[in-house]
Amino acid sequence: MTSERAEWGRHQVDSEMYEDGNALAGPLGEIFTMDVTVAVSRCAGCGLAGPVARLHVYRHAPGWVARCPACEGVVLRLVRGPDSAWLDLTGAVSLRLPMPTL
Predict the structure, then answer these.
(1) Which long-range CB contacts under 8 A does 35-39 form with residues at least 24 apart?
(2) pTM, 2 dp
C-alpha cells in the first residue's frame, strides 16, 4: 500500500469515529435557549474560528468532547448528569453567540 493510500485510510477511519458539531444541538439545547451550534468558537490551541457545528464531536467518553477540526485540540466538553450539566470551554478562547437585535 502506498503512503498516500495509508494516509487516506487513516483519515477514513478517523472520520467514522466522530460526528460534526450539530450533534451538540440537543445536549446544549437543554442548557441554552438558543441554537449554540451556530455560535462561533475560537480554538485556544491554533486560533481557528468557526461555527460550533464544524467541531468534531466524540461520544465515546462519558459525555461529549468537541475537538478543533484543524489541530484536534479539545474545545468543549459536556457531561450531563441526572440533575446537572458540566460544560467546560477551557479550549475555547471565545464563544460568540448571535443575539436578536434590540
Answers:
(1) 36/95, 36/97, 38/98, 39/95, 39/96, 39/97, 39/98
(2) 0.75
- The total number of structural domains in the chain stands at 1
Tell me the C-alpha to C-alpha distance, in Å, between residue 78 and each of 25, 44, 52, 58, 65: 12, 17, 13, 11, 7
Q: Is residue 2 part of a domain?
A: no
Domain membership of residue 8 (yes or no) is no
Four-residue CA torsion sign, 44, 66, 70, 40: negative
Distance of alpha carbon 65 from alpha carbon 37, whole angstroms: 14
Q: With contact defined as beta carbons under 8 Å apart, do 58 and 18 qualify?
A: yes
3-state SS assignment for residue 49: strand
Residue 48 located in a structural domain: yes
pLDDT tens digits, one per residue of 6-15:
444 444 445 5
Cell readout for 76 is 468543549
- Domain that includes residue 44, residue range: 19-96
